[in-house]
UniProtKB/TrEMBL annotation:
This is DNA-binding transcriptional LysR family regulator. One of its GO terms (molecular function) is DNA binding. Keywords: Activator, DNA-binding, Nodulation, Transcription, Transcription regulation. Belongs to the LysR transcriptional regulatory family.
Length: 315
C-alpha cells in the first residue's frame, strides 16, 4: 500500500498540515483544487485514514495525521538537504583533520610541502600521514583511515576511483666520495658495483634484475633496507649504489649531498595514482584536499628537477 505514496503526495500532506486550507495549499503547490483533492484522496486510501476533516472553512488533521507529520517533515528536510547545492568549502575557517596514505618514498617527496601549504591555507587543520602501500590501500580507504591514497595501486573496485598522477621513472643514487664513478654510468660499472635495495619484505630481486638479465649481467646486492629513509646513511657509509624512484632520489640528493645519474638500461616506469572513494568525488572538502595535493606535488616535482608533470584527472 505504501508504494502508492510518492514524493508529490508527501509534499501535499506537508503543505496541508501547514495551511489547513485546500485553496491556499493548492496555490502553494501550483495545483488546482481538483488536483490537490485527488492527491489527498490517494493519501487517504494509502494510509487508510481520513487524515484531514473539514471544520468550518478549514481542515483539522486527525490523530493519525498528527502522529506521522514529524516523520514526513524529517524525510522531506533530508531530501532537501541532499539535493541542495553544496556550499563552497572554506579551508580558512575549517577545523579538523586531513588524512593521506602514502608509501615512504612519496611521503619523503611530498608530505613536507603539503603540510606547509596546508598550514598557510587552513591554519585550523591538521595533516595526518598514514603509512600505506598498494596491498592494503583499498581496504584502509573503505575503513576511513585516510581521505585518499597515493601509490602504485592495483585495479580498483567499482566504488573507488583510481586517477593517474604521473609515471615515476627510476634513477641511480650514490655517494661520490665512497663510489668514484662519473656519469654517464656504463652498464658494466653498474653491474659490477655493490647495490643496496629497498624492500619492505626483504626481497632483493626486482624489475632491475630482470632488465639486467636480458643484457647478460647480474648485479651484486650487498644490503636490503625496509624503508627509503634508511638508504642515505647506508650509501654514505659504503661504496654502493641504489636505484630508486626519481622523486625521492632527487630529494635525497639535495638533502644528503648524494650524486644522481640515469640508469644505463631501460627500466619500466611505475604509474603513480590517487585512489579515493567514489562517494567523495563531489564532496567539497575532499575535492579541495585532492586539488591541493595536485598543486603541491606538481610544484615539488618541478622544483626537484623531475621531468614529469602531474595529471589533473584527480581534481
Amino acid at each position: 500500500m505504501l508504494r502508492k505514496i510518492d514524493l508529490n503526495l508527501l509534499l501535499a500532506f506537508s503543505v496541508l498540515m501547514q495551511e489547513r486550507n485546500v485553496s491556499r495549499a493548492a496555490e502553494r503547490l501550483l495545483l488546482g483544487q481538483p488536483g490537490l483533492s485527488a492527491a489527498l484522496r490517494r493519501l487517504r486510501e494509502a494510509l487508510d485514514d481520513e487524515l484531514f476533516v473539514r471544520v468550518g472553512r478549514g481542515l483539522q488533521p486527525t490523530p493519525r495525521a498528527l502522529s506521522i507529520a514529524p516523520a514526513i517533515e524529517d524525510a522531506l528536510s533530508g531530501i532537501e538537504r541532499a539535493i541542495r547545492p553544496q556550499s563552497e568549502f572554506d579551508p580558512a575557517s575549517w577545523q579538523g583533520e586531513f588524512r593521506i596514505g602514502m608509501c615512504d618514498n612519496l611521503e619523503s617527496a611530498f608530505f613536507g610541502p603539503l603540510a606547509a601549504r596546508l598550514l598557510q591555507l587552513s591554519p585550523g587543520a591538521r595533516l595526518i600521514g598514514i603509512a600505506s602501500d598498494k596491498r592494503d590501500a583499498a581496504r584502509r580507504l573503505d575503513e576511513g583511515v585516510f581521505d585518499f591514497s597515493v601509490s602504485v595501486h592495483e585495479e580498483p573496485a567499482s566504488w573507488h576511483i583510481r586517477a593517474p598522477l604521473f609515471n615515476q621513472a627510476s634513477i641511480c643514487i650514490y655517494d661520490e666520495a665512497q663510489l668514484r664513478l662519473k656519469a654517464p654510468l656504463g652498464l658494466k660499472d653498474f653491474a659490477d658495483v655493490a647495490h643496496v635495495t629497498v624492500s619492505f619484505e626483504g626481497n632483493a630481486a626486482t624489475s632491475i634484475d630482470i632488465a639486467l638479465s636480458r643484457t647478460g649481467h647480474v648485479r651484486r646486492v650487498v644490503a636490503t633496507v625496509p624503508r627509503f629513509s634508511a638508504l642515505p646513511t647506508a650509501l654514505r657509509a659504503m661504496p654502493a649504489i641504489a636505484t630508486v624512484p626519481e622523486s625521492i632520489g632527487r630529494c635525497m640528493a639535495q638533502l644528503h649531498g648524494l650524486t644522481i645519474c640515469e640508469p644505463p638500461l631501460s627500466l619500466p616506469a611505475d604509474p603513480v595514482t590517487m585512489l579515493y572513494r567514489r562517494v567523495d568525488q563531489a564532496d567539497g572538502r575532499a575535492r579541495w584536499f585532492r586539488r591541493l595535493f595536485l598543486d603541491v606535488a606538481g610544484e615539488a616535482l618541478e622544483a626537484s628537477g623531475c621531468c614529469v608533470s602531474i595529471s589533473r584527472a584527480a581534481a
